[in-house]
Amino acid sequence: MYDNLLHYGNQLMALGPGLIGLNLLIRPEATLQQMQYTIPSEPKARQLTRGLARIYGIRNVVIGCIGINLSLTRDPKIINMFYLAGLAMCVTDGIVAKSVIGYGEWTHWVFAPICVAGFAANYYLGDGWSVRTTREATAQFLSSKIGHYSVLTLVSLDVLSMIADFVLNLFKCEQGRKGSEWDTALEILSSVSLVFSCLFVVELMASVWAFGWKYFNSWFHCFDAFIVIAGFITDVALRGIIEEVASLIVVMRLWRVIKIIEELGVGAQEQTEQLSEKLEECQKENETLRKEIEQLKRVAQ
C-alpha cells in the first residue's frame, strides 16, 4: 500500500516543475503575473523577461522529465537525491527572487517543505538510508572523476560570469552607456553569481559532512572554505553597496581560478594512478606469459 502511494506521490511531485515549465513556455507573461512578478513596460526589457521566463521553463520541463524517470525506478535512494536537488533549487531560486525583484520568493519557498516531506516519506516508508552508507557514497562521489569535473564546470562558469560582469561594467563606464538593459544584464549576472555562491556552499557542506573535520587538515581546503563563506555573505548581505566592496568581491572570487588548477591536478593524478595500475597488470601478465613460454620450451625439449 505504502509503496504504491509513494510511487504515485513521487510522480505527482515530478509533474509539478514540468507543468510550471510548460506554462512558462506557452504563456510566459501570464504565468509570471500569476506568480506576482511585475512585467516591465519597456519593449526590450519585456522581451528579455519573456526570454528568461522561457529558459526557466525549459529548465523546469527537463527537471520534471528527469524526476518522472527517476520515480519509475521505485528506488528511494535515487528518488531522495531528486528531492534534495529540488530543495536546493527552491532555496537558490528563492534567494535570487528576493535579491533581484525584492518579492515573489514565496512561490519558491512554498515548495521547500514539500520536498522535505517527500524526502521524509521515502526515507521512513521506503527502504530507508543508512547514514554511514550515504556518507560513504557522498565521499566517493566527491572524490570521483565525475565529482571533480562537476566542480570544475561550476568554477569555470562562475569565472566566466565574473569576467562578463567586469567587461560589461568596464564597457559601460568607458562608453558612458546608460539604460535599463545594461542594468538588467548586470543584475542577471549578479544573480548568477549568487546562485554559484549557493552551490559552492552546498558543496562545502557536503564535503564537511562526507569527510568530517579532517577535511580541513589541508590549508587549501581551509582557505577555500573561507573564500566560499565570505563570498556568499558579501553576495547576500552587501548587494548594492559601495563600489569598493564589488572590487573586493572580484578579488576574492578570482581565488576560485586556483580551484580549477587543483581540480585539474587531481584529475591528472587519477589518470596517472589508473595508468600505473594498468602498467602493473601488464607487467604481471607479461611475467606469467614468460613463465608459461619457458615451461613449454622445457616440455618441448
UniProtKB/TrEMBL annotation:
Gene3D superfamilies per record: Voltage-gated potassium channels. Chain C
Transmembrane segments: 12-30, 51-72, 78-97, 109-126, 146-171, 192-212, 218-238
Subcellular location: Cell membrane
All copies of domain Ion transport, residue ranges: 151-261
Membrane topology listed for this record: Multi-pass membrane protein
An example molecular function term from Gene Ontology annotations: voltage-gated proton channel activity
GO cellular component: monoatomic ion channel complex; plasma membrane
Record's keyword terms, sorted: Cell membrane, Coiled coil, Ion channel, Ion transport, Membrane, Transmembrane, Transmembrane helix, Transport, Voltage-gated channel
Coiled-coil ranges from the UniProt annotation: 265-299
Protein name from the UniProt record: Voltage-gated hydrogen channel 1
InterPro entries: DUF4267 (IPR025363), Hvcn1 (IPR031846), Ion_trans_dom (IPR005821), Volt_channel_dom_sf (IPR027359)
